[in-house]
Amino acid sequence: AQTVTQSQPEMSVQEAETVTLSCTYDTSESDYYLFWYKQPPSRQMILVIRQEAYKQQNATENRFSVNFQKAAKSFSLKISDSQLGDAAMYFCASHTSGAGSYQLTFGKGTKLSVIP
Amino acid sequence: DTGVSQDPRHKITKRGQNVTFRCDPISEHNRLYWYRQTLGQGPEFLTYFQNEAQLEKSRLLSDRFSAERPKGSFSTLEIQRTEQGDSAMYLCASSPGTSGMHEQYFGPGTRLTVT
Question: Rounded mean pLDDT of A20-34?
Answer without folding.
Answer: 91
